Amino acid sequence: MSTLSTAFGDSAIMLRRNFRHTVRNPVTVFNAVLFPVVMMLMFVYVFGGAFKVQGRYVDYAVPGLIVMAITYGLGPTAAAVNDDMTKGIINRFKTMDVARGAMLTGHVVSTTVRALLADAVIVGVGFAMGFRPHASLLDWLAAIGLMLLLGFSVSWLTVAMGLAAKTVESAGLATVPLIMLPFLSSAFVPADTMGTGVRQFAEYQPFTPIIETLRGLLSGDHPSTGHAIAAVAWCVGFALVGYVWALSTFRKRA
Amino acid sequence: MTSSAIAVSGLRKAYGDKVVLDGIDFDVPAGSVFSMLGPNGAGKTTTVNILTTLAKADGGTARVAGHDVVTETGKVRGVIGVTGQFAAVDDLLTGRENLRMMADLKRLSSRDQVVTRLLERFDLVDAAQKTAATYSGGMRRKLDLAMTLVGDPRIIFLDEPTTGLDPRSRRTMWEIVRELVAGGTTIFLTTQYLDEADQLADRIAVLDQGRIVAQGTPEELKRQVPGTHVRLRFAGLGALDAASQILVGATRNDQDLTLQVPSDGRSKSLRALLDKLDEHTIDAEEFSVHTPDLDDVFLALTGRASTEAIAS
Asked: Taking the complete model, does pTM exceed 0.90, yes or no?
């Protein structure tokens, strides 16, 4: 068997393992979906009336919540990666010559799939709450592509953080910035309504262009080219940094 | 093909300033049980880690099944099975799924049969559909070892396989090891329990502070320690008095009415002793030969009592 097909096969076995973990421990998925749904109810029904946005608030909020659902599900992945490294199972895989990185690929793919599932729930609940996107099929495909790219890239970053963390607890905590950043973006209110310092931060942080691009795609008024490029660039950047960091940490630890 | 399953020479390893292995040599013939005996921190796990390609030695060479552990890691990994000190099972998978994952990773043919056979052999059929998180310590160890056996590795490393197990689970573990050896598997076993090494091993190496302080069969090791003696118990003080007069160098115990006579335990010297008693028509109620156990050996070799002896 060639090295490549071994690596692919091993990754598939690891992926199956991670899916089983998710099914056995559905609380992690439930958490990842429940929190953004609660946020959605709060922001749309409680705060939403007080915010001045263009169009209906639910249409404004859904793209931000889509991103939040992706990042909110990362904590369990970081913890699971760290757990794998600290428990005896990693040594078993190593002495069996399991393809290097198969464990990591398994985590990245399962996290991305979980994120997309959470997004499907968010969009579904959004529809029930009156979300009415005006996206064409192509816009939808582009939006899903961006969700996929974001999920994939922050998963690599999360895997790296899980590997770098000393304990399972600190691994879970390491993803908190990724969960908090969307709050300081244009997810719930337009950046130009914020105070000066926060506004600048919101404008230049990665999640604002990503959310704006999704918003543009879903509303049917195409996103600005600047935002779209920035969104893809941030995602590619996350993925690259996460990948390199994860691999070098994995080599050191494993 | 050589007949040694594991050949180690001049192995060294240090972590920072701390020397963990200070040049050890040993050879394990194929199909035998080799036990590395030593207290915590002696370097047993480090040795296992180097031999199983998890750690690199600073010096010396180690070959497993004829393959160098540094330059031929892939080949080494292909023939070994490892059960470490901490059960390497996946808690969220069931027993069956854990075994199936091993069979998948090893790309075995007829995976279901292999898994079912191992579940039966390790008495885990009833628990096969339960997640490993619900298993008792003994069951986890059994599952761990079953996972190691997937694909029938020729050389198996067991790092303190019975530490923390109850006596019954320990015996089960011993039975399994014996079955494996009967099937031709080579076993490298570390333990801090002398009786375990005594029970299972063909050869024992006593490791202390990174050095092998003694090596040989359990019997050879025991013979290295003086202390074999014959114990005689008499019916009354009269007989005891008479015996202690003719047996020079014996230690008498008036309370127990016993006499301890130093002896090498050979039949010739035993016959001489009995003849002497006969000559003087002294009759002993009880006659027994005591050989030192490995606890005595350990104490004599390292100047310290074994962990087990301290614990009890």
From this structure: no
pLDDT band at residue A157 under the 50/70/90 scheme: very high
- Looking at chain A, the whole-number percentage of residues with pLDDT higher than 70 is 99
Here the tokens at position B83 are 């059960």
A20 neighbourhood in chain B, CB within 8 Å = 92-93, 97
**How many separate domains does chain A show?**
1
DSSP bridge pairs for B15: B18
Distance, in Å, from the CA atom of A157 to the CA atom of A144, rounded to the nearest integer, reads 20
The ipTM assigned to this model is 0.82
Q: What is the CATH topology of the domain spanning B229-290?
A: Alpha-Beta Plaits (3.30.70)
| Parts of chain B belonging to CATH 3.30.70 | 229-290
Q: SS3 for B33?
A: strand
Residues of CATH 3.40.50.300 domain(s) within chain B?
31-40+73-89+135-204+211-223
The identity of residue A170, as a single letter, is S
Do the Cβ atoms of B105 and A13 come within 8 Å? yes
User: What tokens appear for B272 in the block?
Assistant: 């001489």
Q: Which amino acid is at A219?
A: S
What Rg, from alpha-carbon coordinates, does chain A have? 19
CB contact under 8 A, B92 and A24: yes
The boundaries of the domain holding residue A119 are 3-253
B84-122 residue pLDDT tens: 887 789 999 999 999 999 999 999 988 999 999 999 988
Report residue B204: phi and psi, to 5°: -125, 140
Fold (topology level) of B31-40+73-89+135-204+211-223: Rossmann fold (3.40.50)
Beta carbons of B93 and A89 less than 8 Å apart: no
Q: What is the pLDDT of residues B61-74, one digit of tens each?
A: 999 999 999 999 99
The mean of the pLDDT values for chain B is 87
